[in-house]
Amino acid sequence: MRHPVDFAVQVLARNLQWIAVADGKVGPNLAIATAMFGILAAIVPGASTRSAIFLIAAAIAALCLMGTIASLALAVFPRLSGSSRSLVFFGGIAQYDCDTYVQRLDHATADELFDDLGRQIHRNAEIAQTKHRHVRRGMAFLFLSVIPCLISVSLNYSQQT
């Protein structure tokens, strides 16, 4: 049977991968939302001569895109709370000078390391869950913006001809 500390290190690595997965979804979704915002910005000038349906669709699309951008920003916002004296968390490690950290690490028991890893695993699981919740919300807003954005673009071109 594997040592519990080895297992905990693997679980922590998986949680860190889940965090990276959530962060990796932000860029493409933000690029799409920004492009769609750009399209709306290009077609909305002269809105006073537009139909009410165009204005409503453009407003709904813009609100959804703002929700997308806000949710994605929350997803990538750093979450730095953790144990201030951890031997695993970079914030805790940085609280020590180098020699003190090496000494603490050298004298740490397997139980202390396991406890520290367990707390770090739990904190990173909370972070991963929060990030994925914000990414999911951002993607939902992005999907909701597609139809009103298409209606706005369609009405823009039909009203120009």
Could you walk me through the main structural features you see in this protein, from its secondary elements to its overall organization?
This protein is mostly helical. The chain has one domain (4-18, 25-43, 50-160). The protein is built from 5 helices and no strands. The termini are far apart. The model has no long low-confidence stretch (mean pLDDT 91).
Short description:
By secondary structure, the chain is an all-alpha fold. It is built from five helices and no strands.
Overall shape: it is rod-shaped
Question: In percent, how helical is the residue content?
Answer: over 70%
Pick out the low-confidence regions: none
Q: For the terminal residues, how far apart are their CA atoms?
A: 74 Å
Chain-averaged pLDDT: 91
Q: Could you tell me the radius of gyration in angstroms?
A: 24 Å
Derived from helix and strand composition plus strand pairing, the structural class reads: mainly alpha
What is the number of helical segments per DSSP (H or I, 4+ residues)? 5
> What series of H and E elements makes up the topology?
HHHHH
| Main sheet: strands, sense, barrel | none
Relative strand content = under 5%
Give a count of the beta strands, DSSP E runs of length 2 or more: 0
Number of domains: 1
